[in-house]
Amino acid sequence: MSTAITGEILIGQRAIDNGQRSLKAVNPATGETLSPDFAVAGPAEVEQACVAAWAAFDAYRETSLEARARFLETIGDRIMDLGQALIDRAVAETALPAGRIEGERARTVGQLRLFAQVVRAGEFLDVRIDPAMPDRQPLPRPDLRLRNVALGPVAVFGASNFPLAFSVAGGDTASALAAGCPVVVKGHPAHPGTGELVGRAIQSAARECGMPDGVFSLLLGGVETGAALVQDARIKAVGFTGSRVGGLALVDIASKRREPIPVFAEMSSINPVFLFPAALAARAEELGKAFVGSLTMGAGQFCTNPGIVVALESPDLDRFLKAADSALSAYVPGAMLTPGIYGAYEKGVQALEKADGVQVCARGTVGEGPNRGRAAIFSTSVSNFLAQEALQHEIFGASSLVVRCKSIEEMRQVAESVEGQLTVTLHLEESDYELARGLVPVLERKAGRILANGWPTGVEVAHAMVHGGPFPATSDSRFTSVGTLAIRRFLRPVSYQSLPAALLPESLRAENLSRLPRLEDGKRLLP
Amino acid sequence: MSTAITGEILIGQRAIDNGQRSLKAVNPATGETLSPDFAVAGPAEVEQACVAAWAAFDAYRETSLEARARFLETIGDRIMDLGQALIDRAVAETALPAGRIEGERARTVGQLRLFAQVVRAGEFLDVRIDPAMPDRQPLPRPDLRLRNVALGPVAVFGASNFPLAFSVAGGDTASALAAGCPVVVKGHPAHPGTGELVGRAIQSAARECGMPDGVFSLLLGGVETGAALVQDARIKAVGFTGSRVGGLALVDIASKRREPIPVFAEMSSINPVFLFPAALAARAEELGKAFVGSLTMGAGQFCTNPGIVVALESPDLDRFLKAADSALSAYVPGAMLTPGIYGAYEKGVQALEKADGVQVCARGTVGEGPNRGRAAIFSTSVSNFLAQEALQHEIFGASSLVVRCKSIEEMRQVAESVEGQLTVTLHLEESDYELARGLVPVLERKAGRILANGWPTGVEVAHAMVHGGPFPATSDSRFTSVGTLAIRRFLRPVSYQSLPAALLPESLRAENLSRLPRLEDGKRLLP
Questions:
Q1: Domain carrying residue A214
Q2: Which SUPFAM superfamilies does this one have (chains A, B) (predicted)?
């Protein structure tokens, strides 16, 4: 594996230099510019990538399950082959610690391997057969067979905050490729070199596995590049992780196409954490310290960052806050991902500082060097929280608002008042269960994941994971972007009625049916 | 079961007369007005129905699977109890033959019973468990459990053309209730008395089964009533069957809400039928006659009506058309569903008659009485079809356009040029398979159902059915409105992480897990 970074655009197996090298990578920890300059994809390159993806589609979606699984695994292998060069470049481009990047690489490669298992297991095809009943009265039943097919080429928008796991070969790409969809990635401009390295690893894996040219392309650019990509008629679905403004803009573009297409946008969440009385009484200090650990992880730049804490006013809450204050003063902030993200964070914190009825509980230390966000914990009353919608807005970074409740009923009111969330967290002891029981149905309506006695940061890639939730957490609460269910976003069912075996897809022919999990006349059968 | 029709609005267990009795039922076969006058729901009634649905939601979604299944079955029983009164009223309001209405009732009741089976089987919950791995390195894995939960109250828009099966207790209502969603139906104003009878059957079943008040409401009205319903914040999803204009209007309203919600709109399809050479040679006359049977069924008022026929120019095609002409001249048209539908049909046929390069192949007889659409078969060349987008527009009624191809390549071009479809049909013999093979991948991209040697009208309610397809057939090709998969539209996954058993939903507790189909650590296990 070569680890040279050329700044070219990757379209299928080609690397293209269109001369528009206006994008520079910056080390946010130092402000220094990293070489090389990167080519920004214009309309011509967007079109070339989409044409290539479309040309690859019919062949790629009918690759055997084994061949597709091997492709996913090979991508993982080629990413590992990048070795230290990938870690170094990602650290330089994101200011995230090397340990975090190594963990994220493991997660990314593990995710590709998990989707390879999903592909091999074949359950995602949702094969169903309702055999013909020629003698049924009053009308015969025809032979009906169903399988899921891939939607078509998918546009994936890399996120700033996970340069590997939610980026070029992240969960959106892995699940779309697993579904049988070619992928055109619009890489995040905050880590273009990391993106290119991973993109070349995918190119290499595609070549090695004999995948059709165009199964993968990587474009860099800004809003215009992204808009052109979503507008291209050959793109049939979009996966996005980022801001509410960005996600809604893509949803809007997709809905105005001649053929509207689904967009799964993971956007905005403040991830409420509910502290119940007995838990606070038993372990206020421990909770305060752990809260700050979650709040400041990755400089607070997690979709699942604990942005509000909801607790009963009490001396135990004061102990919690004191412990948080103490932990915060020991926290040395790392640089945030980009000057833009840092600027938005500072603006958000300043607005919160000035908001009516909001008190500062604790501020973190001032970091040395550019782009260091000063962590912040604020507090406010329930009535104040309910009166000001702006207090619910996500501040991307290490800022959190403690909502002081006078009663469990007020905790319930806060729960009812918040918008849709990726996660809600409960800290409780057995004696809190009775109080919490009434809250769970409310929280189920609000969030994609409910967790107890842990912290929302850290999203396991698993079969039972949901990284999704009601609007504005995502644009469609019926899906998830993490975990094996993420593949569902990119599949649609097709029913085949009385089709001769010669024309049926292989997986639905009599001789192959028993190799796949299937629903036969309503009965679940396993291979 | 009382079979009195009062014209009142049904909100939960109440029947309300708001004095706004401006809607009259009309017998389209005679033009006579049927009594009584019906109350049109205004903003107050829309709100009451949504408030009631919201109040019922948390209780209804946690009813036991057995109780919910019994409720669905009881609705079916109470519909059957309506007996001849239901048949008579539906015939009077739609001009459809009694035999058709009886068949549709059987389908409707069968559909409710099928969803009862789906509920009992529990697979729709998609239960998943990834057990904790406390010793995993470098980080432990928490206990993760997942189930699907109901989205919330669903607005269902009844269709004009299926007064029972796609209406008050039709597939949308059955699948939403099965998912655990309360339902507010906006009944179609073309058959208000039929709707009220069925609505009262549901009321009665809800009472008998002890379901929460508000689990079901039935509103009548026009565009404003429907818009108010979709705008109500308590409504969390929409099911619609109807026109492209109507469906797109609802999608637009839903997308502009403070909290956008998913709309499944089944809208527009011309259901191409491909006639392959050997099939035409072997059975041109039989095909021509059967084609007219499908075309004129229910006065052509089917979503799956065969609106275009694609065939190779040949003497066999002429034989086919001659047989169709002969069958059409023996067809006595029934009245269409409403004067509005009849008027739109006539306008569409007149436009086609005048379109460049379009020839009349056959016209049906002129019917006696109002609202009789004269059936029509037109033909045109491929180049003409490709040049005029308007030739692809659905004409709702018994009109079809034969596209004459000079080669198989031209058949493929037509297939590539059409928009998304509910169905595509192939008529072929074994010697056609080779020609058809290249077409199947194209058709898979275009339609939700591919059928061979049959006709698209007649949609089996089954596990392997798809009544859906790419835009504009529906607003989201990942779902279907017929068949057991229809339930997926109204469900979202929730993940529970490390939740104490006392707070877990019953279905996810250790002692109940083995009763449900589930994915345990990626392995499929059956009860």
A1: 9-95+151-267+478-489
A2: ALDH-like
Residue A149 with chain B: CB contacts under 8 Å: 444
- Give yes or no for a contact between A129 and A510, defined as CB atoms under 8 angstroms apart: no
ipTM: 0.98
* Domain identity same for A208 and A277: no
User: Is residue A494 within 8 angstroms of chain B, CB to CB?
Assistant: yes
SS3 A333: coil
Q: What is the CATH number of the domain that holds A182?
A: 3.40.605.10
* A447-452, strands of its sheet edge to edge: A359-363, A376-381, A399-405, A308-312, A273-275, A421-427, A447-452, B491-497, B144-150, B127-130, B518-520, B523-525
Mapped onto helix, strand or coil, the DSSP state of residue B86 is helix
As a whole number, mean pLDDT of residues B321-350 equals: 96
Q: Are residues B395 and B482 in the same domain?
A: no
Q: Please judge whether B419 and A498 are an interchain contact, meaning their C-beta atoms are less than 8 angstroms apart.
A: no
Cβ neighbours of B462 in A, within 8 Å: 130, 141, 144
State the smallest CA–CA distance between residue A168 and chain B in angstroms: 24
Q: What is the pLDDT of residue A2?
A: 85
Distance in Å, alpha carbon of A111 to nearest chain B alpha carbon: 14
Nearest CA in chain B to A423: B495
**DSSP assignment of A469-521:** -TTTTBS-TT--SSSGGGGGGGEEEEEEES--GGGS-GGGSHHHHTTS-EEET
Q: What is the pLDDT of residues A86-123, one digit of tens each?
A: 999 999 999 999 999 999 999 999 999 999 999 999 99
Q: CATH code at A312? A: 3.40.309.10
**Chain B residue nearest residue A440, CA to CA:** B503
pLDDT of residue A307: 98
Q: Does residue B1 have a pLDDT over 80?
A: no
Overall number of domains in chain A: 2
Instruction: Cite the DSSP H helix spans in B297-368.
Output: 315-329, 339-354
Instruction: Identify whether A464 is part of a domain.
Output: no
Partner residues linked to B423 by β-bridges: B449
Domain match, B305 and B366 both: yes
Q: Is B123 on the interface with A (CB under 8 A)?
A: yes
Whether B216 shows a pLDDT value over 90: the answer reads yes
Q: Check whether B2 has a pLDDT greater than 90.
A: no
| pLDDT surpasses 90 at B104 | yes
Write out the two tokens for B39: 């109350």
**CB-CB under 8 Å, A452 with B497:** yes
CA B278 to chain A, closest CA, distance in angstroms equals 15
Q: What is the pLDDT of residues B440-466, one digit of tens each?
A: 999 999 999 999 999 999 999 999 999
Give the number of beta-carbon pairs within 8 Å between A and B: 227
Which residues of A are known catalytic residues? 266, 303
Q: Which residue numbers in chain A have pLDDT < 70?
A: none
